[in-house]
Amino acid sequence: MPRICEKLNENTTLKCLDLSMNKITGEGIKLLAASVRKNVSLELLGVGSMELTIEELEPLLLEFGKVGISEEEVKDLEAKIAERNTIVEKNKKAKGKKQEPVPIVNDLEKDDKGNYYEIRKPNFKQLNIGFNKLDENALEILDRLMERTSDKFIVTMPSKYLTKEQCTNFLAKYNARVIS
Length: 180
What we know:
The chain has six helices and eight strands.
């Protein structure tokens, strides 16, 4: 995983990565989560059929959608946004000259109560976590994932550990956003 993650960190064009049916541990998933955060181009990711628990998958799941962040993370993100905006303004003034690359920075959102959220991977399309150890306890975590992601986000989650009724209820709630 370290070698795969190193390449994923550097890659700016890869849109689809399917690691399904490999023996990746929870520690490997943590490394992958950090690389997914850094990679700007990835739109589809497969980590199915690995016999991972929801607890092992959770670090990866937190890399998608609207995620609460600390005051320190807010300051860091605001600085990155300001830097990006400065580059955009410089590029506007440099008509016909070589333009500086504009860094891709996640958006920041503040709610009515003053809580801040980072919008992670807003263009991500599909996550395959099927055929892992997703039991009824996983549904609560997956429900939070679906609530904080956009309507374009799709999860593939067939699981031999869920009952047909549990799958049907989850499918009914999220309609076309779940492949089971």
